[in-house]
């Protein structure tokens, strides 16, 4: 069985395929093809966001794939700049209309603060947005709800003010930047960590140390990095518009990274800038 058919399970029992296909920076006009290629290779989990301006193209791919709706897992996100109860409900409808779907699989608050004001305290507004998330979850419009880029204190604010704790936190997570504090907090709470930018948006691929380690397993650096996130218990979301790479990124179950190399990879501090 391919890793593309394996799942993590949220605390409400909903299954989420262990590797997702990332679509950030894939323009609307090319995203349909990229998603169709990923689906053809066997990916069954697609990660998009209203802010990526490509939800319509993702929706078109799902329709064209002719897969049964239950066979494909779709995540989208409430833009970081949009906060509040009514605002979140309105934005969700926009996403659903773009994707042309009745039900979404996972809906995330894209970030705790607007991208232009990173670090701003928006606790009150995030709690309001989360009330809207709980409503659409209880109504069955979305099968799981979560957050992205949330710190421990951002998460605690939501957890202390709601009956439905976030099921996932999508954060930057790669060998070089493993964000251990939030990673450990989420793991202890049973909140799934989704590893975005598992290849450091491609910046890690030329790194000498990573190339040396990858060689010992006879795999590419991309495969090593994706396998690393999985062995840490996170869910990688690799993005590519290149068919051969989309396929390569899914072939990560024929090798196991040793405990020694896992420690080595986890201890790297490098954002490869
Ligand atoms: N929640 C958030 O705030 C957030 C932020 C960032 C990302 N994300 C999610 O995470 C996904 C992935 O992160 P990312 O887009 O930053 O990038 P990434 O997956 O870390 O890396 C993508 C880059 O690596 C290249 N690449 C992919 N596979 C390769 C391979 N096998 N060999 C060589 N090069 C390869 C791609 O090139 P080509 O495409 O040209 O092949 C692209 O330039 C996003 O698409 C998005 O869904 C979420």
Ordered list of secondary-structure elements with their pairings:
Elements: E1 7-9, E2 15-17, E3 21-22, H1 28-41, E4 45-47, H2 55-65, E5 73-78, H3 85-99, E6 104-109, H4 123-138, E7 142-148, H5 152-159, E8 168-172, H6 180-189, E9 192-196, H7 208-217, H8 221-231, E10 235-236, H9 243-248, H10 259-267
Parallel strand pairs: 3-4, 4-5, 5-6, 6-7, 7-8, 8-9, 9-10
Antiparallel strand pairs: 1-2
Helix pairs in contact: 1-2, 2-3, 3-4, 7-8
The chain binds NADP nicotinamide-adenine-dinucleotide phosphate (NAP).
- Could you say which small molecules are bound to this protein? NADP nicotinamide-adenine-dinucleotide phosphate
CATH homologous superfamily descriptor: NADP-dependent oxidoreductase domain
Structural class: alpha/beta
N→C terminal distance = 37 Å
Give the neighbour order of strands across the main sheet. Answer: 3-4-5-6-7-8-9-10
Write the H/E string, N to C. Answer: EEEHEHEHEHEHEHEHHEHH
- Quaternary organization: single chain
CATH class identity? Alpha Beta
What is the fold-level CATH name, i.e. the topology?
TIM Barrel
Which whole number gives the mean pLDDT?
98
General shape: globular
Q: How big a fraction of the residues is strand?
A: 15-25%
Uncertain stretches of 5 or more adjacent residues: none
User: What's the number of extended β-strand segments?
Assistant: 10
């Amino acid at each position: 069985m391919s890793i593309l058919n394996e799942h993590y399970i949220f605390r409400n029992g909903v299954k989420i395929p262990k590797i997702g296909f990332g679509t950030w920076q894939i323009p609307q006009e090319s995203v349909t093809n990229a998603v169709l290629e990923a689906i053809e290779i066997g990916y069954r989990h697609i990660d998009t966001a209203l802010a990526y301006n490509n939800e319509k193209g993702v929706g078109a791919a799902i329709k064209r794939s002719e897969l049964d709706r239950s066979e494909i897992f779709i995540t989208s996100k409430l833009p970081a700049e949009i906060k509040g109860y009514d605002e979140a409900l309105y934005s969700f409808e926009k996403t659903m209309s773009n994707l042309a779907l009745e039900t979404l699989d996972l809906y995330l608050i894209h970030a705790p603060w607007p991208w232009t004001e990173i670090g701003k305290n928006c606790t009150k507004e995030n709690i309001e947005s989360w009330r809207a998330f709980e409503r659409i979850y209880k109504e069955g419009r979305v099968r799981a709800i979560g957050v992205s880029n949330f710190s421990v204190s951002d998460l605690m604010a939501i957890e202390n003010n709601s009956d439905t704790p976030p099921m996932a936190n999508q954060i930057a997570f790669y060998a070089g930047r493993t964000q251990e504090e939030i990673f450990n907090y989420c793991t202890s709470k049973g909140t799934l960590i989704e590893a975005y930018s598992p290849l450091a948006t491609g910046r890690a691929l030329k790194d000498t140390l990573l190339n040396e380690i990858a060689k010992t397993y006879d795999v590419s650096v991309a495969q090593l990095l994706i396998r690393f996130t999985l062995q840490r218990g996170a869910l990688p979301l690799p993005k590519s518009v290149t068919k051969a790479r989309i396929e390569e990124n899914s072939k990560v179950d024929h090798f196991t990274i040793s405990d020694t190399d896992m420690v080595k990879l986890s201890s790297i501090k490098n954002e490869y800038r």
